[in-house]
Structure formats: C-alpha cells, structure tokens
Amino acid sequence: MSTSEEKTIRLCPIESDILETVREMERETLGEVHDEVRKGITVNSSAVKIELRVEDSRQRDVARGIVRIDQETMEKLAVHPGDVVEIIGKRKTSAVAWPAYSEDQGRGIIRIDEFSRKNAGVSMNEYVIVRCGEVKDATRIVLAPADMRLNVDEDFTSFVKNRLMERTFVEGDTILVMMIGHPVRFTVTKTRPHGIVRLTHNTDAQILAEPLPLPPPTVEVELTSVNELDNLNVEIEVLEKGYDILNKSIELKFAVIVRFNNLVQTGEFDTYLDESTKLSDLLDAYRKKALNELESIKTDIKKRSEQIGFPISISLSDIKKVITEKVERT
C-alpha cells in the first residue's frame, strides 16, 4: 500500500457491533482464565529470568499479543496463563503468556509472531530473555499509523481503543489492528508511564493521522586519538512546558544534545512533573545522569582503543539514543 495514498476507513454499525462482540468474548475468556489460575496465588516475582529460543507462532496466534511457553518455564517464572511477560532481545517488549502446545513441552522455546519478534528485535532461532512483566495501567498512549494516512475522528479512536483494550504495550512497539478485513499497523509512539503499560477504559488514547517522519541519517565521526574524546559533550535543555488538563499534571519536553566539535545530534523525550518535585531539581538530576552515561561511554571507548588502536569510528546517533533512553528512565 502506497504511503502517499490516503485511506479512509469507516465502520458501518453492524460491522462495528460484530467486531466489538467478538472482542468482548475474548476479554471475558481471558478474565475467566485469570480468575481460575490466580486462586490462592500470592507470589509473582520478576527476579527470575529464563533464556528461550525463538520459534514462529502458529497462524491462530498471530497479532493477538500472546506468546506460548511451556509449563516448566511458567513454573520457574511464577507466571500463569494470561499473565504478562517481558521479552528482552535487542529491545524490550511484552506479551501475554499462554500454554505451549503439547509437542513443545520441555523444548526450551518460545513461540512468538512476527510482530512481537520485531518489537523484541530478534529473528527466528535467536534467543530472548523472558521474565514476569511488571505492568502499569496507561494514563496515556499515542499511536501513529506505520505506513498510511488516516482520517481520524472520535468514532475511529474509540474503535481502535476497544480493539486494543487490556492489551499491553511498550513504547516503540508495532501493533496490528484488523479493520473490516484489512490489517492496519500502528506504532506506539508514546506511553505514560514508561515501561510495560496496559490500555484500559481510563487511558487517554490518541491516534495520529500520519506516520512519524523518518529518523535522521546516522552521524558517525572518526577519532584519531583518545584526546579527541574531550570534544564529546552532552547537554540537557527544557524545550516545552505545558499543563495536561486530563491528567492534571505538568508535562515537560526535554532535549538531549550530544556535541562533537561542530556536529550535533539531538534527542527528545517527554515526562510529567509531580507536585513534590521542582523543575530545577529534575533538570539537575537529568544532567547528572547524562554526564555519567557519557563518561561511561568514553571509558568503554578508551578500553576498546587499547585493544584495537586508533582511528576508531563512533556513532553520535547511537550515543544520543543511549543517553536519551537512560535519562528518560531516571
């Protein structure tokens, strides 16, 4: 489907009712599973981590946000069918754990569909770390279409929200929503809070009409000596301040600015300011974290240079990304 072609997706009342009925049945079934398996269960720890080999999901499980793991793994993780697990590959994502098929018991595998594999940054036969997920209800989720433009109104937003009700997400995930037989891919561009979040009736769900702009090209520099690391610096600045009426909180946008001589790479992130924190204190904490992360990166580069010598190429884009992610989670 062409990215320049604008698609208008509308639901007639009958189709909408049928889809919502099916979705409601799925939610009721999942609720019954939760009620049945959690009787008398009080322990659910995220401390245990298990490495599993990735295999493809079966067609019946595609785009449902679930993974299949065997009974032994579930017991070690202290999770039960219907619980959320965190999946860690090159990036982190989440899914609902369901029992493995009988022929997969004891094989040390996890069946993941292509969407969750992409979200975890892994391919078939690679390994992921799995642990019990720590889930928070989302106060806000922003979705953007991955490869088309949409006409978004209140009815459309409500339909998508209902289709994704009780699903869990991590910022950066790609998800699939079926609409009148047509798959529409969305990118989770922002969540509040961060980490694994669950979309609920109280979640403020926003859907953008167009895909996000492509990221800027990677910027790399070549270091000829260890002394040039002194030219690598980072700054934190406040870009925007606003009051979120729905959540009754102050929303802030920060910039993470990485400089090397005349080259600049800038990352951005949003956060909320609670009533007990001063902006100056938060800014100081972010700057301290950014400087500590930069020093850690410089130390690692120095160690690598002792192994292979100079010149060494480094990516300012990667440094910006790493520091932004670390600071955002402070």
Layout of helices and strands:
Blueprint: E1 6-7, H1 13-37, E2 50-56, E3 66-69, H2 71-77, E4 84-88, E5 92-99, E6 109-112, H3 114-120, E7 127-132, E8 135-137, E9 140-145, E10 149-150, H4 154-163, E11 168-169, E12 174-179, E13 182-192, E14 196-198, E15 204-207, E16 220-223, E17 232-244, E18 249-260, E19 263-273, H5 279-308, E20 312-315, H6 316-328
Parallel strand pairs: 1-10, 2-6, 3-5, 8-14, 9-15
Antiparallel strand pairs: 2-7, 4-5, 4-7, 9-13, 11-14, 12-13, 16-20, 17-18, 18-19
Helix pairs in contact: 5-6
Helix content: 25-40%
Number of strands: 20
Radius of gyration, in angstroms, nearest whole number: 22 Å
Distance between the termini: 40 Å
Estimated structural class: alpha/beta
Number of domains: 3
Low-confidence stretches: 1-44
Q: State the strand order across the main sheet.
A: 3-5-4-7-2-6
Counted by DSSP, the helix tally is 6
- Give the biggest sheet: 6 strands, mixed
Overall average residue pLDDT: 85
- H/E series: EHEEHEEEHEEEEHEEEEEEEEEHEH
Strand coverage percent? 35-45%
Per the principal axes of the C-alpha atoms, what is the gross shape?
A: globular
